[in-house]
Give the backbone structure.
Amino acid sequence: MKEKITWFYTLEKEWWGDKVQSNPYLATVSLMFAALLGALVGGGNTLHNWFNADTQMILLTALGVVCIIAIYNVGESILAAQNGKVATLRAVVLLLGTLLAFGVGYLMAVVILVIVAIWFVGTFLTGALAGAGSKKGTKYTLDDGTEVVRETGLFGEESFREKYGSRTFERTSSGSDEVKEV
Amino acid sequence: MESNTKPIEAATAPRSIRWRQVLAAILLCSPFFISMARAFVLPTLFDAGWSHEQIGICYSIIHTLPQLIAWLLLIGIAANRMTRVAVGVMAGWIPFSLVLSILGYMGVFPDGGIGNLMSLLDSFVFIYAFSILLRNNEIAESRRKWILLLPISHLYGVVWICATVAQNAVPEGFAFGIEHIFLVSSGFQWFMYILRLLLWIAYFKMTHSEAFAPTYYDTPAPAGAYSPATKYMAMPIICGLLCFALSWTLYHFADVLV
């Protein structure tokens, strides 16, 4: 758990070593919060556009929040770094990183929603359309030569429909091989 | 190897010191709970016929008194003269700003300018005090990286003013009112909850740090110990300018973004 919310700290220790004495959590949590905010804005606005859902978020406000979060991290960079070069570099990395995290979160949410939509259409809608059309059932030929197709209804009820006509048949009793016209 | 950097004083601090450290930390964390409790108490108070001003004055007192008590408790266990000055600055500023805020509720200052000025000054005073505390104590890195969050958290006043000024500086075609400034958005409030969570740890780290120890080293302050010309004081200025620049850009292109 700790590694998951301190990964930026681990990275910056690799980059700058002891030249920066920053808080292990603030930068990572900020980046992840920016990404989450991006995902909420991107997903919320997409859902609003598609279904007119009450999930619209103002992009301007969210970007403002991301800027303020970045500024808090710039403040930490100035205090935590041992020299000006590292402070500037860390500030720039976090400033761009927070904005990038927001953008990535935004795009990821939209992409995931599009994928879910495509999957939804692909699975349910094609299934429903296929179900509404002619269903391929097992074919039987009755003793009088009539060709029938076996169909099962929504609740498993069985019926035999005439292939080249409009008559329907069902079994005389369950398990029986004989059919009668309905 | 964080366990090895623990100072001997803190590990073996006598009982009289330890209760002060713990109590001060709890009191410094308390404003969050008080502001949470206010949301539940407010309807009852309004039903009981309290006015907005009366509630405001009571809330200011209840909100700031624990912090004042905490800093007064910490003055007694300051490790050196510089720490004592730093804590004294904070303990002195709190009643001053409290009196001004009460006067504000009583309608002494007709326009809201004094409130903005106070929040700006509040930021600078606290950051200055923490800069004295951080620069004049040899605080172990494991604690230092937490205590750094305290001056950063006091950037709020600077950020507020700069964002407001930027918003007012962009009049052309700006559709939103003042209430749409992003600092009051729920997104920012959630970030502040996370920051406050870290600040609770920071307050405990600060009161248990080398700055507050059972022994008082009465050495004279070295040259430049109280100097405001440090990176700590540069931080709010740089962050303020950056905040102004970023907010101005955002508001300038607001029509495109919305």
Notes: The interface with chain B takes residues 21-26, 29-30, 33, 37, 40, 58-65, 67-72, 74-76, 78-80, 87 of chain A (CB under 8 Å).
